[in-house]
Amino acid sequence: KKEEIETKVTIIGSGPGGYVAAIKLAQLGAEVVLVEKDKVGGTCLNRGCIPTKALVRSADVFKNIKESEAYGCKVENYNLDIGQVISRKNQVASQLGEGISYLLEKNNIKYVKGCGEILDQNTVFVKTKHRETTIKTEYIIIATGSTTTKLPIPGIDLDNVLGSTEIMEIDELPKEMVIIGGGVIGMEFAFIFNTFGTKISVVEYMDKLLPNLDEDICHEIEEIAENKGINIYTNSKVEEIIRDENNKAIVGFTNNGEKKYISTEKVLVSIGRQPYLDGLGIEKLGLELNTNKKGIKVNEKLMTSISNIFAIGDATGGIQLAHVASAQGIVAANNIMGIEDTMDYSIIPSAIFTDPEIASVGIDEKYAKENNIEVEIGKFPIASNGKALTLGASEGFVKVIVDKNSKKILGASIIGPNATDLINEISIAMTNGLKAEDITKTIHPHPTTSESVFEALLAASGACIHN
Ligand code: FAD
């Protein structure tokens, strides 16, 4: 069957970039076609943010049961049913997927299932087994996301070497697992599976875990991970994976120049993701890529080198976060509809769902030093926060960076309970150019973990009450 559609905007990819852009455009009155080759919701909903957080929740429940005796509620005879863990995760994702489909319908967005190819700057072609759709369009938004980066070493194709998508579909809990890559995705899985009872080793190329974070946070999370029994090998380059006679994988790596081997049931490779642009036809179109050839080059309006084609999210090779993709989707939608809008990357919060959680926004201490910014640093230990102690979660701290002269808040790094929610107070303060005292004169409810942000800001001027 062949069909031809005419529309104002065609969006390729329905992740948090694409579907949010579609809804925004529809709200602004545009006719929109959304093309998706897989499931609605993209990586974020089906293989990323949401499924991992469903697993984090299962790990959390399991941990609470394991530690229940300390809280006066002894539970006996408990066990982990990995099949149920996986099916609950799938159920959460599919419920949210239905929610997005409902929103698309409500906003009269035409959803075309299939792989989209850009034939020319005003034509997108979608072909499936039974249907060929030609879409004539005024604008195109490329929101095709990213895919896992393959490690070019021998043994990478062995069947017990998995990526983040496959590890979330297992039907048996591995006894041991080596995680190659101690970045955000690797560390979230390290904590999840460690709590489930898998013996975890993390092998990281750089000299620390989560290398983009504040140095104090890096040290803290490494110490916490080690205390929980996770083996960490930093400064380590994985060179090969060998299958032994018992079908186990042996991961061979150099650690500080010394060759080491770990025998393991499963290997999880999480060394990063790269823009997914396969089959889009961008070479023929002559669309400019970034200088490192990774991702589509865009300007601050998310416009590509062809002015009626925009690109957003992971496909642009920038910050790989769902909320960045969505924010870019809105900026692109506004510009298409004639509303001038640009992306500001200076206040992007990031959230890591390790145990405890980590979150940060703005600059950190090292950045301030390197750029000769005169700052006051306030640090408050979570162990001094009453609510945290009631939760049984006393590890971590809040660290804030305040401009010494203007007293404006420049950034924060938090490790501790609810860190991923707490960071928002700082983000809002920064977006509005608030000073430390704007928050410290705000009464914070007691007992809450938010008091630790309040106290850290007091600490920046040497006026902390509870430490
Ligand atoms: P995607 O979500 O990747 O969506 C792109 C879509 O385009 C896909 O559905 C794909 O099928 C489709 N597509 C591609 N090519 C075509 C084509 N030619 N035709 C039709 N359709 C096409 N980010 C966070 O902010 N918080 C987190 O907690 C978090 N956790 C993560 C955990 C994991 C394990 C992973 C892998 C990622 C995580 N991320 C997280 C990152 C986040 O998922 C991505 O940054 C986000 O999904 C990017 O959104 P996007 O819209 O650019 O692309």
From TrEMBL:
Substrates-to-products reaction catalysed: N(6)-[(R)-dihydrolipoyl]-L-lysyl-[protein] + NAD(+) = N(6)-[(R)-lipoyl]-L-lysyl-[protein] + NADH + H(+)
Top enzyme class: oxidoreductase
Cofactor or coenzyme needed: FAD
Annotated GO MF terms: dihydrolipoyl dehydrogenase (NADH) activity
Subcellular location: Cytoplasm
Keyword Manganese: no
Top-level taxonomic group: Bacteria
Cofactor binding note: Binds 1 FAD per subunit.
Similarity-based family: Belongs to the class-I pyridine nucleotide-disulfide oxidoreductase family.
Protein known as: Dihydrolipoyl dehydrogenase
Origin organism lineage: Bacteria, Bacillati, Bacillota, Tissierellia, Tissierellales
This protein's encoding gene: lpdA
